Amino acid sequence: xxxxxxxxxxxxMVVPDSRANWVEKxxxxxxxxxxxxxxxxxxxxxAPFPAIxxxxxxxxxxxxxxxxxxxxxxxxxxLARDIAGADQFTDGRVEIGLGAGYVKAEFxxxxxxxxxxxxxxxxxxxxxxxxxxxxxxxxxQPRPAQPSGPPLLLAGWGDRLLRVAADHADIxxxxxxxxxxxxASLQMAGLEEMAERVxxxxxxxxxxxxxxxxxxxxQRVVPPQDRAAVLEVFGPALPPEVADTPEELPTLLIGxxxxxxxxxxxxxxxxxxSYITVLEDxxxxxxxxxxxxx
Length: 294
Known about the structure:
alpha/beta, eight-stranded parallel barrel
């Protein structure tokens, strides 16, 4: 592997709240040292674009991203307008995360057909191609602040989606889990499966491998005293190979800040993953790890 990328750290905000509390949370994330504040795209959570624009107004340094938009919810042309406007109004601090969607109940609630995985990925690819084409046109309006539009993060796990990501993404996000049969929960991937997925992507990237950043979504950051609780909460989703050693799982971080920092160094060495995203409920627990890895 060539020279390692420096770490970047994101926190994905998922809790709807008042304007004042949203501003306060974004400022805390920036003060903790996070590089990116993300907004999820689920019904019942904050609308992504107003949230990231307000987050940019409340902060000075952090980038803002959608982590991740369910592409089948959106008409690509209308989505391009919202993305370009958000990038313009934040002076180019936007990154756009896109996925194919997996929660059927949300599609049903929105009255949007939950089509096959193949068709959802095809819509995602069409969306990406549309964004790239429009933002490459110097006459396109509204004009994004970043010359070719915001960087694109494509997140997923299956072969089809990862092929699209390898062709088009600036950042590839590994969910570290596959949708269970119920379409709502996720089954966490083990070490061998994670290594296989990263290897699959690197093979597809070819000459682009050193140009594309790899991201992983950490499901929980757990202090040593809470380790037992992890087995209770995540036990059914853990692969057998790590059932008794959940700290080895790439999508969990368990231990002291020093132990977590070393695990992330090891995982960067093994998988090439340098962009780490945690959930909002882990924002404070993870902050000391950021300090150790700077």
